Amino acid sequence: MTSAAAPGRSVTARVPAKINLELLVGPRRDDGYHHLSTVFQAVSVYDDVTVEPADDWGITVTGPYVDLVPVDGSNLALRAARGLADVAGVAEPVHITIDKDIPVAGGMAGGSADGAAALVACDALWDLASPRGVLEDLAADLGADVPFGLHGGTAIGSGRGDQLAPVLGRGRYHWVFALSDVGLSTPAIYAECDRLRGATPVRDPSPSAPMMSALRSGDAEALGRALTNDLQEAALTLQPGLSEVLGTGMECGALGGVVSGSGPTIAFLVADHEAALDLAVGLTASGVASAVKRATGPVAGAHVLTSGAATGAASPPRRRGAQRPGAPDGGGGGGAGPGRPPGRGAPSSPA
Ligand code: C5P
Q1: 145 lines ligand 1 (CB under 6 A)
Q2: What is the residue with the minimal CA distance to atom 4 of ligand 1?
Q3: Helix 76-88 vs helix 110-125: crossing angle, to nearest 10
């Protein structure tokens, strides 16, 4: 298959990591997933996903996690791009480049985020202007955390975590993340949670009053107290060293600390920028974490950062069963995400 794409045409989408401020795990469902009630927050640790027309589907990863990201057909960004091409009838392969800063297998939805970014980037590259619902359905098919990558902000997730409702909260929160260099498998953590629960009956969860009230008021101290994760015990069982990380962070002045999603990243909430610097220094000096990152939240979901189409070099993609039209249609395209954004986030060292 050859591409008739204009040389140099590319779109870059930026997507944030997520943390779970509250993760309440209900009973296991027949499909193997668990009923969840979770509160997601998008934080300023980003992957940048660039798509450009190519002769064949392909993927390249750059950044510190190169060796940890699959570059075969299992990669969520590649699956997302192909899924959108199928739905939209686009017959133009893309090469995807992921500039990765979100930890891999860290409980911050790094792979899911790339799926969301690829949807937004391809939607813009192919001038599809897909209805939001189309991208959301594709996202939910890719994985439980992918829809939140599109959504961003702060949101309640129910069902598998993929049915989202925005939280109208106040405040901008300062986070410090303690990273581990050994990842945790999400299915293994859920299985361990089931094992620890044994035959104890579990009810369908719903968002807690303390969490909702903390977010409504924008009270960081109350939010710190309300941070909860039903998977935390399972993560601490499988990676016992995380208890020391949690203890150290609290001793260094965090308002609260919680395992992020299925871990092993631990998210600490602090009062302000200075407290974040102090905690990052404290965690680094103690040697309990393999790396430390600072961030703020909430931030916007996946959005187009730059588009080579703006240079006027764009031509519409080939559609299956249709001749490539001779001239651009002039459509603005544009991704599903809000236009935004400046810097890529705080540096990963406290210095
Ligand atoms: O949807 P995703 O592929 O990200 O989920 C990874 C795994 O996490 C699932 O296969 C399942 O084992 C577990 N999971 C779950 N319940 C959820 C979300 C994820 O059991 N609500």
Answers
A1: yes
A2: 143
A3: 30
How confident is residue 1, by pLDDT bands cut at 50, 70 and 90? very low
pTM, two decimal places:
0.88
Q: How many CB atoms sit inside 10 A of residue 50's CB?
A: 23
- Give residue 25's pLDDT band: very low, low, confident or very high (50, 70, 90): very high
Residues 113 and 98 sit within 8 Å (Cβ to Cβ) = no
Cα 174 to the center of its chain, rounded Å: 17
Enclosing H/E stretch for 87: helix 76-88
| CB of residue 36 inside a 6 A radius of ligand 1 | yes
Token representation of residue 117: 């970014």
Ligand 1, atom nearest to 191 Cα: 12
Which residue has its alpha carbon closest to ligand 1 atom 3?
A: 143
Look at the domain 11-305 and name its fold. Answer: Ribosomal Protein S5; domain 2 (3.30.230)
Question: 3-state class of 117 per DSSP?
Answer: helix
Pull the structure tokens for residue 81: 């791009």
Q: By three-state DSSP, how is residue 234 classified?
A: helix
pLDDT in tens, 196-223: 999 999 999 999 999 999 999 999 999 9
| Residue 64 DSSP class | T
